[in-house]
Amino acid sequence: MVPDARSTPLIDTSHEALMFPTLTPAQIARIAQSGVVRPIARGDVLIEAGDHVVPFFVITRGEIQIIQPGRGGDVLVAVHGPGKFTGEANLILARRSLMRAVASEPGEVIQLTREQLLDLVQTDGTISEILMRAFIYRRMELAQQGIGDVMLVGSMHCAATLRIKEFLSRNGHPFGYLDLDRDPDAQALLDGLHVTMAEIPVLICRGDVVLRNPSNEAIADCLGFNENIDRAQMRDVVIVGAGPAGLAAAVYAASEGLDALVIEASSPGGQAGSSSRIENYLGFPAGISGQELAGMAFAQAEKFGAKVLIARGATALTCDRKPYRVEIGDGATVPARAVIIATGAQYRKPDIANLSSFEGAGVYYSATFMEAQLCGSEDVIVVGGANSAGQAAVFLSQTASRVLVLVRGDGLADSMSRYLIRRLEEIHNIELRTNAEIVALEGDGHLEHVQYSDKRTGEVSRLDVRHVFLMTGAVPNTAWLSACVTIDAKGFIKTGPDLTRDDLTTARWPLERPPHLLETSLPGVFAVGDVRGGNIKRVASAVGEGSIAISFVHRTLTE
Ligand SMILES: Cc1cc2nc3c(=O)[nH]c(=O)nc-3n(C[C@H](O)[C@H](O)[C@H](O)COP(=O)(O)OP(=O)(O)OC[C@H]3O[C@@H](n4cnc5c(N)ncnc54)[C@H](O)[C@@H]3O)c2cc1C
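The joint structure predicted for all components is written out below.
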């Protein structure tokens, strides 16, 4: 029997054509060549929620219902008739199915395994475009509606809640959220689960596993983000970091037939993922949010067959012999014929005594929709004079009453793009304070007041501001590399022509040829994007370097 689900599909159909396109008979015939045709009877469960690596179905006759099973009853999410197909982003990402697919009318379907589907989308551009767009729009819709297999119970005043929301959002994983401060049922739910205040936030994972203030790694494990990735397998190339540079390297490596594994300490997207709107990336005249760009790049890399380990940081590189090995904690190491270091950079933390106690509780390092929601219409401070600070100020000015931009220098001209400086000047609720430096943060549990000094006069001002966005200078993520590759005075990795004869002698460069462009002082190990000395701190340059490095990886693999 078909389960008793709600009779009206939950999905908002305003994106109907994009989410649920109808395949033409010619397209269906092409898909049929890759799979098998099978009959379906009413009540047949084709996919069960929680199943891992599920098949893909095109309906040729009959009807399939997509259902989200839940303790409070099943919810009908979508109905597919002839010409429609099943699946969303999890199918490409080889993650567990969020939904059950059940035949509601007898008929016939074409069934493809995930591998057959990946082969098809790599060779048929038209079908690839239709399916990828539908999968991504379906995922966006699920995320917007909070439909999924995860419920987070927490408080907007708690840094761990913000971390987990950010982790799930940046991984594009849909989740529901219950706020303890706003939802009277939330506390009752936690009492029922015997959760103490110290264990908040709580994540109810896949319906029944209760995780108390879990690490990102524990969440990734519970949701199966890294299932079926063989960590001991020798890879042609291991890419460390899944920011724009690492994801670009993954797309080019996998699409050119290399066996590529990406290791990402947190979530795909890197710094770009924390940008509210990137307006200078080629091909997006209206701009694109960093998260959207990262989500599409991630799906693209997986589509070509690259594997991405989430929430697993590289802790060391074993570089004294080949194959190189990237350590990922717990004694696990990944062997690699070539390595691309794309670990980027992170904001420098200003030297303020109690800074860490306000991180996530009034102090933030990215300005996305999530942080804007936390600030509401209150005043906010943005610290920094580069483009990222400018973007944050423009974005936050849409919701905050007043945005104070604090810069240490005399102005913005040396550090910010002209188009952003003009925007800042034109927006009435943005105020620029130059020669300004934060000297103290005050508050009990949450930031309440900020003190800043005028560097010229030494005068200290105290502001009743509860939200500060720190976007000041970048430090490269190279600590994990110890002495394997040559770095410059600021800790960025030296590559190609920047490596002097002395550098190469000290590093015992063993080859006749000089290092390739983007190659470090270790043959076959490359550095791309913001982690590289002399980088330009742009999404486009990071993407360019990631893709260029792959052509040199091919050369070193034949050496
Ligand atoms: C708020 C903001 C707005 C921006 N806006 C723009 C813009 O509009 N236009 C533009 O061109 N540029 C912009 N930039 C700059 C741009 O985002 C960066 O230049 C770009 O992201 C650099 O890419 P990357 O891949 O080299 O490094 P990152 O983006 O820094 O990515 C590095 C990745 O490596 C991971 N990582 C770090 N250490 C490890 C480890 N040990 N093991 C595994 N993984 C690790 C990190 O978690 C991260 O995901 C902006 C930056 C910020 C912060």
